Known about the structure:
8-stranded mixed β-sheet; 174 residues; Aminopeptidase; alpha+beta; 4 helices; globular; 36% strand
Amino acid sequence: MITDKSGKEYTVIPLSEFDDFGEVARFVSSVRATSPHLLRANPVTANEEKKFIDDYRKSAEKGESVIIIALDGNRIVAWASLDSKGGRMRHVTTLGVMLEDSYRGKGLGQAIIREILKHRTPLMGKIKLSVASDNKVAIHVYTKTGFKEVARFKDWVRNDDGTYCDDVVMELEE
Length: 174
């Protein structure tokens, strides 16, 4: 269970325990359609989400990935992931966060980040993320949850309007 700034509680479960692939597809498509800071993609189908979740479950069994979702009733409203890649960078884990548009600005982002960090596996060493420099709200949230900027790639992010901004890499301070 996590709580937003107003005191509203949300049920948190691992994505691997959620089998409503249509709801997962609705959530991911909704976030992609309403957030200028995520890579744009065509809406996803329930079958595409089922395949993604099946692949994720295999990765989670190895301790390489964790995804949690926050539910408001049966509706997914937030998602956080930790994902490690194999090889020589296996100890580096990438954080990903998505929130449904109407739930942003309520402290839910900070709450789900703090919760996902509790689910780290022994394989997950350094935690990093990448964020567009014009996403000031997300940078503020990440800073409040313990991340600091460690690198910046000038003009690596191309916005829908043709302008560019920097790709900011942040790392969890421990």
